[in-house]
Structures are given as C-alpha cells and as structure tokens.
Amino acid sequence: MARRRKGRAVHGWVVVDKPSGPTSTRAVGIVRRVFDARKVGHGGTLDPMASGLLPIALGEATKTVSFVMDGEKTYRFTARWGQATETDDTEGAVIAESEHRPEEANITAILPRFTGELEQVPPAFSAIKVGGQRAYDLARAGADFELEARPVTISHLELIEQPDRDHATFEARCGKGAYMRALARDLGAALGTCAHIVALRRTQVGPFAMADAISLESLESLGHSAAAFEHLLPVRAALDDIPVLSLTEFEANRLRCGQAVSLLARANRERIQDLTKGAIVCAMSADTPVALARYEGGEIRPVRVLNL
Fold first, then answer.
1. Could you give the angle at the alpha carbon of 45 between the alpha carbons of 44 and 49, nearest 5°?
2. What pLDDT was estimated at residue 270?
3. Which of 100, 198, 213, 285 could crosslink 252 through cysteines, CB 3.0-4.6 Å?
C-alpha cells in the first residue's frame, strides 16, 4: 500500500509579517504547522535581521512563486555611516571606519546614480553560488573569492529621514536580485565614507502589500483553527498582474490534460485581441484558475497546470 503523504492539500498564499530575528525557514515551518500543509514554499527569502513581508505559498500556489519573486519589491532601510562590516549589516564584524559623514544635499544629489539599471556586486555573505558552494559558506571559512557584478534595477530610491549624523533612512523599490545591503555599502563609498545596514524592512512583494499581512506571532497564536484559514489568500492572489482568459469547460479540460487550445476561430477574436505573442495568461474556468498558459501561434499551451 502506498504511503500517505504527510499534511493536508491546502492551496493558497499566506502573507506573513516576519519580525527581525527568525529565519525565513522558521517562518515557513510555522506556517506549515498552523495549516498542516503538505507542500509549502516562500516567495523571496528575508535575512534574519530583516523584517516585513514574507509571502508563503501552500499547495498549488507554489507553482506561482516565480511570478511573485519576479515582481518589484519595496524596502525601507537605515544605513549607518562611518562603519563597514564584513556582512554589510549588523551581523558582521566592523572591518573599516571613517570619520566622514555626508550632508543631506550630498546624499540626495547622488541618488540618481543609483536609480535605474545598474551593475551591483552582491555582498560576500549571500546565497549566491561560487563553484557550487554558497558564498556565505566560503566567506565564513575565510576563503578568498570575488563575486561578479550583476545587472539589477532600482526604480525608486528616496531619502526619508536623517535621525542623526550617523544614520539615514531610505525607501527603495527594486526588481529581482537587488541587495539593499550592497546598496547601502555602495552609497557609503560613493559619498566618501563607508556604511552598513542597521535596519531593513520589506513592505511590498509583487502584488502583496502590508494590508495583506498577519504577524508571525499572531498567526502562530491562532494555531490550526478556522481563524487561521481566514488569512489564507487564493492562489490567484499572486497573479493580479497577469491577463485572465476565460475558458469553456471543454477548453479547460484540454488544458488540464496538457493539451493546447486553439483560439483561431473568429468567435475568439475578442477574447484574444489584447494578447501578444508569448504572453502568459491565467486561464480560468468560472472562478477557478486552471493553468498558467502561453499564447502563441493562435493557441494557448499550458505552462503550469493548477490542480484545484
């Protein structure tokens, strides 16, 4: 007899407001226990010192994680001028110091240089792989290595406040792969000093905002209860920016079986008039997502079938 898989088939998104301290893995574990979920994944990890939004996917929602991770993210971070650390945050030892403190006018003048498409060298203590090993493992072992600069996009960068001469708080909106620790480090260098992050909070991830979130402590206190399930968002919540294509039941069944659906008939012209070649759509049958599908050559082909 086949072994029963542990957990229940729970599908949807839970948006957790993670506090500073716990790892993203611990947050995922708490969500798994609260919902007794068979399958769980997250939409973009947060460093232990960071707080804020951690969207966690359950069941079939894990098939939509890439759409969340590829979306823009918004952060608020505080840089500490005059000290560089080995980790570019408060977790590492101080490795350089400077007496120089930048003025507000100099800070705001330099921000356009860090907005748009730019090359960024990730922190040495990061999850990027070097020769098959994580950079943070190599860094902890004292290995000598260099990370190559990678293209990132920062669409918005604003100075929010300067509570004192040693600190400055910023808000940044960025695409996938941008490190706020590296941004603070590079801002310090460009301003003739050094810097590291002392506070970091993520306030938006793709379609998810703080209004969607529940604190990790509150969720854990609810336990496995009906009240906890009130915070389970539908799978489609991650797909708000993706065009929706309504299907007949016959078309939906073809996609569920991994087959393409032709839309060349004249009757379908209105349905596909706004679709471009290669577009990804959320194929729906009534109110239920059926698949993520690609429109090409007058037909849609399933990319990820959603078994809901």
1. 140
2. 67
3. 285
